[in-house]
Amino acid sequence: MSQDLPAASSANGTQPVCPRHPDRVSYVRCQRCDRPACPQCQVPSAVGIHCVDCVRSAEQRRRPTRTVLGA
Fold first, then answer.
1. Cα(44)–Cα(65) distance, integer angstroms
2. Engineering a disulfide at 16: which of 25, 36, 40, 60 sits with its beta carbon 3.0 to 4.6 angstroms away?
3. Could you tell me if residue 52 is inside a domain?
4. CA 31 to CA 28: how far, in whole Å?
5. What is the residue-level pLDDT of the chain in tens, covering all 71 positions?
6. Quick one: CA dihedral 55, 56, 62, 68, positive or negative?
7. What is the pLDDT of residue 13?
8. Number of domains observed in the structure of the chain
9. Global pTM?
10. Is residue 66 part of a domain?
11. Residue spans with biased composition (Polar residues) (predicted)?
12. How far apart (Å, rounded) are the C-alpha atoms in residues 1 and 11?
């Protein structure tokens, strides 16, 4: 999790906005990092919504699938 990244907010600080699209207000938050995610940045998962950044980092950490013969 990247808790060191602050959640983006609008200029007046009242409405949460997507960190990747600051012009879009978003009240949906990623289940992993708790940052707001606009509809374009939301990825549905079994446990809620994840942002594209968390999905990308999880895919990079995933080990390659092995076959029955070990290849």
1. 22
2. 36
3. yes
4. 9
5. 444 444 555 455 689 999 999 999 999 999 999 999 999 999 999 999 999 999 999 988 887 777 777 66
6. positive
7. 62
8. 1
9. 0.66
10. no
11. 1-15
12. 26
Name the residue type at position 44: P
User: What is the extent of the structural domain holding 44?
Assistant: 1-60
Query: Does residue 43 form part of some domain?
Result: yes
Q: Is residue 71 part of a domain?
A: no
Q: Which of 39, 70, 35, 71 lies closest to 54, judged by CA?
A: 35
Q: What are phi and psi of 43, to 5 degrees?
A: -125, 115
Q: Is the dihedral of CA 39, 40, 41, 42 positive or negative?
A: positive
pLDDT value for 11: 52
CA 49 from centroid of its chain's CA atoms: 8
Which pLDDT value is given to residue 59? 87
